[in-house]
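Technical annex, item 7. During the second reporting period the consortium partners agreed on a shared format for inverse folding records so that results from different sites could be compared directly. Each record opens with the tokenized structure and is followed by the designed sequence. A conforming record, contributed by the partner at site C, is shown below for reference.
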């Protein structure tokens, strides 16, 4: 018998492979188109504090979007693994001169400096990475549950509370319906290089 956890793991593997199969040209054009989508949407018009992440493993490249935000004088925050609260994330400001370290997942993150941590509720937009999404706004992540845990601890009761949660993805990460778990935090929006999906 296949458990739900095994099904979810299989979906993760399939979508990671799909993402990694994108060519450099496809990745480059997706990253540029993502900036155009961001510029076009009224959702981002007044955003000055934006949490993103540094892409890896075939994720849509956020570098051009980060450069655009910096050029607009917006503040960009990226996740840092919480030093004490296991499985939780903090969001720290990221600038061109931020000292970076490689964490134990092989992902670059700012060297922890409490002066530059932003409380999540003070962010305007929080973009989450994802491995697959469905057309109800359900999100399958890498399997660590970091975003689920961090967002659950905020005790959000209103789906449109600040910050606005938005999944970032390639179009090919869309699937009809994901097997979800009770702890999965759904997303009100997903932004891809071709459109902004809004679900609720
Ligand atoms: N709010 C939470 N509190 C405690 N553990 C959680 C919470 N959310 C998720 N987890 C745990 O994190 C693990 C991974 O979550 P999962 O949703 O499968 O990963 P992902 O969201 O990265 O795809 C699960 O074992 C789950 O029990
Ligand atoms: Mg989850």
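Designed sequence (site C submission):
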């Amino acid at each position: 018998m296949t458990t739900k956890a095994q099904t979810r793991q299989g979906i993760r593997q399939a979508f990671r492979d799909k993402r990694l199969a994108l060519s450099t040209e496809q990745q480059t054009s997706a990253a540029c188109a993502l900036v155009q989508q961001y510029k076009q949407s009224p959702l981002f018009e007044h955003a000055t504090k934006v949490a993103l992440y540094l892409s890896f493993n075939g994720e849509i490249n956020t570098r051009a979007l980060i450069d655009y935000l910096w050029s607009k004088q917006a503040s960009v925050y990226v996740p840092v693994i919480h030093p004490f609260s296991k499985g939780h994330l903090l969001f720290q400001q990221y600038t061109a001169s931020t000292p970076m370290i490689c964490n134990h997942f092989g992902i670059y993150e700012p060297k922890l400096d409490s002066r530059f941590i932003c409380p999540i509720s003070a962010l305007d937009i929080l973009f989450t990475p994802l491995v697959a999404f469905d057309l109800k706004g359900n999100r399958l992540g890498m399997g660590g549950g970091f975003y689920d845990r961090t967002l659950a601890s905020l005790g959000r009761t209103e789906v449109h509370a600040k910050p606005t949660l938005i999944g970032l993805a390639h179009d090919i990460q869309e699937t009809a319906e994901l097997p979800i778990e009770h702890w999965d935090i759904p997303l009100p929006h997903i932004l891809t290089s071709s459109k902004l999906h809004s679900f609720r």
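The CA atoms of residues 4 and 181 lie 9 Å apart. The mean pLDDT is 96. All partners now use this format for quarterly exchanges.
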